[in-house]
Design a protein that fits this description.
Number of helices of chain A: 2
Largest sheet of chain B: 5 strands, mixed, barrel
Structural class of chain A: mainly alpha
CATH topology of the largest domain in chain B: Rossmann fold
Oligomer: heterodimer
Number of domains of chain B: 4
Strand content of chain A: 5-15%
Helix content of chain B: 40-55%
CATH superfamily of the largest domain in chain B: Hypothetical protein af1403, domain 2
Distance between the termini of chain A: 35 Å
Largest sheet of chain A: none
Low-confidence stretches of chain B: none
Helix content of chain A: 55-70%
Low-confidence stretches of chain A: none
Number of helices of chain B: 11
Largest interface: A-B, 33 and 39 residues
Number of strands of chain A: 1
Number of domains of chain A: 1
Mean pLDDT of chain A: 90
Radius of gyration of chain A: 17 Å
CATH class of the largest domain in chain B: Alpha Beta
Structural class of chain B: alpha/beta
Distance between the termini of chain B: 189 Å
Number of strands of chain B: 14
Strand order of the largest sheet of chain B: 1-2-3-5-4
């Protein structure tokens, strides 16, 4: 999963969890997923190093 | 003789001044020449000099408000281009140039070219495209010299602020005659990449060094870029056409790197934490809601439980019971009273009681005789008294006599 997709998924989860008729079971599932996504995003950032690419001189 | 009267010198000079003032060509012009008799008036800060060429000269004055903006020190003997307007100093009847700018020779031509290109592009609407710079670009195209310090500055800053970014470098020549075409080629190449932002620029240099960023063809290519652009040329005081055409001007390459990473990884961590906190809040809200519902259900079950219902019935039963009991009791009392009254009434009607009070009844062979008409003289009758019966015979009868009691 990409970092962007993880961030997007986190937003989706918030929206899902805001639904008034969501069950406690689903709420717990979404929360668990959010915790995993957050861990993934934090690690992605802490592990990141600038990627440098180069084209031929123009 | 031309006229019948003479005018004053003042009037001549005034007329000359008005004529010059009315001539548009003399109101804003560039004049080339060599400076002589250069004098800086220490008290006022005004500069006075004569501008001359091989055959003519004209006096010049540059007032202190303009003189203090000079970026170099003019002196006698150097060739310059001045900008200003021609006016007549009425006291001396002397033409002079009121100078607003002085440019050293060489730079003068560049400046003129710059001004011309700027006006042309401005009129063409090339300065009006200001798209939003993505706050968190995934891939930044960096068009600059591989040899310059600007490249390393930019990489350092992006690496520090947003290491999750990818930078694609397109090396270019940033000075000299080949520079404009090099910049144009790089911009065209960048269009075929998946970059979402272009930073184009170089570090500081002389006006000549930066001149490729004033090239009109380059400016038009920059304008045509589908990808938003940040122009970062030289130092904060350097303004190039590139800066006007780009979506955003950065005062320096380092500043461009900061503008390109508006949302840093530190910001992102903050945002991530907020998202988690939000999810946590929502979960707690849900839990809270469930607890409340549980509580309510529990209470309603308590209300419905059988022993409660039995108690209810039992209460109703005893209520009914007491109602019935009291009802019956009331009835009995009522009937009792009626019975007593009736019994008294009946008792009052008992003939024995009447006989007890001294009355007697006469009975014949057909029962109690209630009328004189029912007997004949000679009939045997029985007189019933309270304590016995007398046998008697009717000896006489009369209806005239009434019992006189």
């Amino acid at each position: 999963m990409s970092f962007e997709a993880a961030m997007k998924r986190l937003d989706e989860i918030s929206v899902q969890m805001e639904q008034p008729d969501i069950t406690l079971d689903d709420s717990l599932k979404f929360y668990k997923e959010a915790v995993e996504l957050v861990a993934f995003c934090r690690k992605y950032i802490s592990d990141a190093t600038l990627t440098i690419m180069k084209l031929e001189e123009a | 003789m031309p006229d019948f009267f003479a005018v004053t010198v003042s009037q001549v000079n005034r007329r000359l001044a008005m004529l010059v003032k009315g001539d548009k060509a003399l109101n804003d012009l560039y004049v080339e020449g060599e400076i002589s008799n250069y004098t800086l008036h220490a008290a006022s800060g005004h500069i006075y000099f004569t501008l001359k060429d091989s055959t003519a000269s004209i006096k010049c004055v540059m007032f202190s408000s303009y003189a203090e903006r000079l970026t170099f020190a003019p002196q006698s003997g150097i060739s310059v281009m001045v900008r200003g307007k021609v006016g007549v100093y009425e006291r001396d009847g002397a033409n002079q140039i009121y100078v607003t700018e002085i440019l050293p020779q060489g730079q003068g031509e560049l400046y003129l070219a710059f001004e011309k290109a700027k006006q042309e592009l401005k009129a063409g609407g090339y300065f009006e495209q200001k798209r939003k710079i993505p706050p968190q670009p995934k891939k930044i195209c960096l068009i600059t010299s591989e040899k310059g310090a600007a490249l390393q500055d930019i990489l350092n800053i992006i690496s520090r602020r947003s290491p999750i970014t990818t930078v694609l470098i397109i090396p270019v020549t940033v000075q000299g005659v080949t520079a404009p075409q090099s910049l144009i080629n790089a911009l065209n190449k960048a269009q075929d990449t998946d970059c979402d932002l272009i930073i184009i620029g170089r570090g500081g240099g002389s006006a000549d060094d930066l001149s490729c960023f004033n090239d009109v063809d380059y400016a038009k290519t920059l304008f045509a870029s589908k990808i938003p652009t940040i122009s970062a040329v030289g130092h904060e005081t350097d303004f190039t056409i590139s800066d006007f055409v780009a979506d955003l001007r950065a005062p320096t390459p380092s500043a461009a790197a900061e503008l390109a990473t508006a949302v840093t990884c530190e910001d992102l961590l903050g945002i991530i934490n907020q998202k988690l906190a939000r999810a946590s809040d929502l979960l707690h809200q849900r839990l809270e809601g469930c607890m409340q519902r549980l509580d309510m259900v529990q209470k309603s079950i308590m209300l419905l439980k059988p022993s409660e219902r039995l108690n209810n019935y039992s209460e109703r039963l005893s209520l009914l019971n007491s109602k019935i009991t009291s009802g019956v009791k009331n009835n009995i009392e009522k009937y009792d009273l009626q019975l007593t009254k009736k019994s008294e009434y009946i008792s009052a009607l008992n003939p024995i009681n009447i006989l007890n009070r001294g009355y007697s009844a006469v009975s014949g062979k057909d029962g109690i005789i209630t009328s004189v008409e029912k007997v004949k003289v000679g009939d045997k009758v029985k007189i019933i008294m309270s304590d016995g019966i007398l046998d008697a015979e009717i000896t006489d009868k009369s209806t005239e006599r009434k019992l006189d009691l």
